[in-house]
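Hi support team,

I submitted a single chain yesterday and got back a structure, but I'm not sure I'm reading the token output correctly. Could someone confirm the output below corresponds to the sequence I sent? I've pasted both exactly as they appear in my results page.

Thanks,
R.
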Amino acid sequence: MNKITTLNQFQEIQQEEKALQALLFGKYSDDCKPRQSTINNILNYSKALSVRKNEYLGQVEMVLN
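Hi R., thanks for writing in. Yes, this is the structure output for that exact sequence:
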């Protein structure tokens, strides 16, 4: 069953699409960036994480703190 779309409905859909594209692909503000402390926490965790392969246990993950 085909649905008939009027010109007004089509224009509304186009406006909604433009608004979504602007939201998705627009420039990010400073509010959308992670804080420096968050980045430092992730980097410190990656430095403290040790992943080793073991013949008997398989992959072993340890945090060395």
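A quick pointer for reading it: Helices lie at 7-25, 36-48. Let us know if anything else looks off.

Best,
Support desk
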